[in-house]
Amino acid sequence: MRRSSFAIAAALTSVALTTTAAVSMTTAGGTAVGSPGTAAAAEPVTRPSAVVLGPGVRSASEKADAVLTDAVYVTREGDLSAKERKHVRAAAQKLRTLVDRAREAGGTTDRTRQTAAASRNTARAPLAERAADGSAAVTDAPVGDGVTAAAVDATAPTNLAGAAAGLTPLSEQEAVGLPVLDTLLAGSVDQAVDAQEAQAEGTEVLAAGVEALPAGVDAPAATAAPSARRIEKVTTSLQRLIIKADGDAVVSVKAGPTPEEIAAAKKAAEERRAARAARAEERKAAKARKAAAARAAEARQMAEAAKNYGNGQIPSSILCGLSFSGEQLRCDAAMALEDLNGAFRATFGHNLDVVDGYRSYADQVAVAASRGALAAVPGTSNHGWGQAIDLSGGIQSFGSAEYNWMSAHAGKYGWKHPGWAEPGGSKPEPWHWEYGTSY
Predict the structure, then answer these.
(1) CB–CB of 36/155 below 8 Å?
(2) 110-139 residue pLDDT tens
């Protein structure tokens, strides 16, 4: 069956269009198109982020670190007021925040991207060049009744119409000037690849131009790191504040005290403590003397009141009790016995043992009834005036340590052992002692 040349040309044109579409779709899917029979491999490209720490920002950050160190030292050791120290710390915190932001941003990079489109400088050539350089080898093949036709490689874009007309095979030199089959689908492939390359080149330009932004102009959202000019401005502001607050940023350190000065200071401190203790003791003694004087005055007043009553008739409200015994005495006698007991306790470690003090008239009658001639006549005993006591605890024996101590010290406090009670007296009673009596 014979076919016309126009039918053959139409069939070849259909095959070419189908092949071109397949090639275009392959290119859009990620395979780069090069010369016929070859493919460009996709290259992994790591592009730096737009906030990479540049030399200018790095230098500004290092200078900021030095000034921040000065700020820490000045606020810690400098002779600054509370207000100045607060201002320096606030400015230092502001600068530290800027530096941290710059370094955090500078430590990030974009994810590695696979570039599907081949670079137009390396693997990809324009469609016209691919058609010229990649013209398929045409071989003679019998068509029909011995007519020689051009067997054309269907994948190579070339002058298909000329080949279909039965022309001789095209040589490489002859194909340069021939028209190329240019379709809308082939043109869209070029446009898609060009758009991808333009986007990559725009990212590189943005990364290179971040540091060139004018002062005060915010970077895009993806490049929020502070600029070198911003860091330098805040650094200079902090440096001036330090100089203003502490004068040339020099901290004056006073020399420490010498060993002699330390010893003198310790001695002075000890003397001050001793003086304070002495003053405290003096105040305490003065207070005690004042209280004793007040008690003595009150005791004398009550003693005078007691004299208005008869022997054995003094009311209990006018008498004074003893703190170390349940007995009562006339108030002046009781106060003197309290002082005597303090001295006795300091010597023997215990209080005086008082077994009898004031005796009412009824008590005197009872004692006279039990003791007979050894007891005083009721109404005449010094016990009835509240000026006599009977003691035990060793004092009731002549020659004991307690009796000898009382004999030596009782008189200092107004107490005495009457002569009639002495060992050679009319009624020897070592336990009987009296206050303020006279015979």
Answers:
(1) yes
(2) 333 333 333 334 444 444 454 444 444 334
H or E element that contains 309: none
Asked whether the beta carbons of 119 and 41 are under 8 A apart, the reply is: no
State the architecture of 307-435 in CATH terms: 2-Layer Sandwich (3.30)
Question: In 3-state terms, what secondary structure has residue 219?
Answer: coil
pTM beyond 0.70? no
Locate all alpha helices (DSSP H) within 247-258, ordered by sequence. Answer: none
Instruction: Assess whether pLDDT exceeds 60 at residue 292.
Output: yes
CA distance 297 to 300: 5
Contact call for residues 43 and 195 (beta carbons, < 8 A): no
Kindly report, residue by residue over 221-240, the tens digit of the pLDDT: 444 678 989 999 999 998 88
3-state SS assignment for residue 282:
helix
Q: How far apart are alpha carbons 85 and 75 in whole angstroms? A: 6
Q: How far, CA to CA in Å, does 197 sit from each of 40, 191, 200?
A: 15, 10, 5
Where do runs of H (alpha helix) occur along 78-183?
82-106, 127-133, 160-164
- The Cα 396–Cα 393 span in angstroms is 7
- The rounded percent of the chain whose pLDDT value lies above 70 is 59
Q: Compute the distance between CA of residue 181 and CA of residue 158 in angstroms, rounded to an integer.
A: 7
Contacts 24+ apart (CB under 8 A), 396-402: 396/430, 396/431, 397/430, 398/423, 398/428, 398/430, 401/348, 402/344, 402/348
Answer yes or no: are the C-beta atoms of 79 and 252 closer than 8 Å: yes
Question: What are the φ and ψ backbone dihedral angles of 392, each rounded to 5 degrees?
Answer: -135, -155
Count of helix runs (H) and strand runs (E) in the chain: 11, 12
Average confidence score pLDDT of the chain: 73
Q: Residue 73 burial (CB < 10 Å; 0-12/13-18/19+)?
A: middle
Domain ranges of the chain: 1-254, 307-435
* Residue whose structure tokens are 């119409």: 161
Q: What is the spatial distance between Cα 410 and Cα 352, in angstroms, rounded to a whole number? A: 12
